[in-house]
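[Automated response] Your request has been received and processed.

Submitted sequence:
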Amino acid sequence: IYNPVERPDASFSATYYGGEKEEWDAINSGAATDGTMDSWNTLVSLSNAVGSAGTEAARTAAYMKVLGLNANGTDNLAFDNYLDATNYVDYLMTNFYGGNQDWPHRNWYASRRNGPETQGFVFHNWDFETSLGLTAGVTTNVLGASVGAAEPYNQLKASLEFRVLFGDRVHRAFFNSGPLATQNSVARYQEIVQELQQAIVAESARWGDMQTGTPPYTKAQWQSEITNVTNFLLNRNSIFLNQLRAAGLYSTVVAPSFSQHGGLVSSGFDLTVTAPAGAIWYTLDGSDPRMIGGGVGSTAIAYTGSPIDVATGLTVRARVLNGGVWSALNEATFAVAAPADASNLRIVEVHYNPASQAGMADAQTLEFIELLNPSGQTVSLDGVQIAQFANSPYAFANGLMLAPGERIVVARNPSVIQSLYGAGINVAAAGYAEDNLSNGGEQITLLGPTGLTLQDVIFDDAGLWPLAADGGGKSIEIINPLGAASDPTNWRASHYRGGSPGTSGVAPALAGDFDGDGDADGSDFLRWQRGLGTPALTGSATVGDADGDRDVDGSDLVLWRINFGASFTATAMTQAASAPPTEADLVSLAQRMVDQEAPEQPIRVQGRKHLSPTAPVALSPMAHPQPAKGLPTLEESEGVLGENPNDPAVVEAIDAALEGLTKSELQAHLG
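Generated structure:
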């Protein structure tokens, strides 16, 4: 049975990790398929420096340099990052676990993005069939691999810090119902088997004699192999963990256990931590209880037996220190509300290539990603991360929750978003700073509190994707939040310039219907009048923005006029039954009233004659101008137009044209 997969070349890497394909070096079994071998050779050279260092401190410094860091783990802008160490350890671990016999001398792919946004080399599993019992038994040990894809590993394992990371990833994968825990491995394999139950019959009929003579392989032989693989999975873990301990890749000190390993708890839940031997140290601030070099972390807390009070969502990270040796890290995230999953947390808007904005030196600071809780229950963001677009996943601060229907904006620069788009938007306090969304499209992965993928958004700036979002001033907004997140037909360009952070962004059904009552009438004109002058990026349909450019100006009035007609008759206003009123019509009408001229039709509005044509008016873009003293309100006004006296729609239209404005101001705004 064939399993079609993508070839992990430069195009693949750019699609899933960001950037353009020209930025990527891609390597297949020691030969560059894209780019050059230069960065790989540098990685090997830097790794060799780790293996040849004479002291543990020197090995730590050399290892950190591979990662582009100082010896204490802080960023060093003078060093390039040549390795995504977490990815590499996971890659090695899966091949070691399976006992892969046709690797690492061949059948390996790796790629690295060049430039300041690099995350280092990432590795991709490839050709894994000679494993899991096929030519590899349950006791197979390939931890001594030293060539090909394992060449850096052969030197890096001399570093204690690399081995600590390796052990931490092993503990995460094999314990606490991790992805390689025995029951999960068996269940995953059985799911695949069930998918192939019928297909294997056709496989036998067509290719059953490919590797043998007569009689051909049948479903009986396949069932026998299923048993072999299942037995491998059932018995491999304990053997493999002992191999890792012997190689120094998993600590011999037993890691601590939690009375509940994360998840949803009630407020005030008491968490207990146990270990068979040694002192338990834990943190609640996301830091590691163990410092680089082996010391106790500055924020680590000694566990004395008293339960840890889980009043709000938090992440507990704990290790045991016994005889100067640390255990692997045990980590769990607790949520008081419902934990995030694919049904209650979705990425719904991405503003990846903002257009230039007046007064903004770098438009890219307007980038943002918006998330929505589409469910009917409050969801906790504890442990939620947004990955792939950044060198390191963006992690939400502990304690954040989203009510049903609530949104949260993750901005590159939160203060800029809040200052330009206005207050009232739920913006995460921390932004993604120096990381940025690729203007050419990339992958954005939403990860839940257990690290499982909740949503994958793989967008582009070509094909069926909304092109107006690529520097044209729009964002991309999902149409069905629970639908296919990487289907371009499930995304639209935003109605509003600059996107719609904090709102659904749905365009009004009728341009000019500012009050949302389904028509364009005098009350909508009044809203436009009140909103006139609203600053850029703060306008919306509710304050008079009809064209979606996020401000309120004369162009919005033009659209209102085009759609005008649902609330009052235009005939007497314009002497043309089918034509909507123009700006000139409104100015003319207002001028007659202000100058107390007698119109051709008997128009009368009580109290309007008291309006002074030179009365000063203080206009405010966010507030309704106050009428001159003595001017009656709309309810007090009475209008007569032709044969339809006391028509409230006519009164409303006249009131909208006049209220709070002098003739000169009307002419300035409308003429």
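Summary generated for your ticket: The chain has four domains: 10-246, 257-335, 341-493, 522-670. The chain has a mean pLDDT of 83.
If you did not submit this request, please reply to this message.
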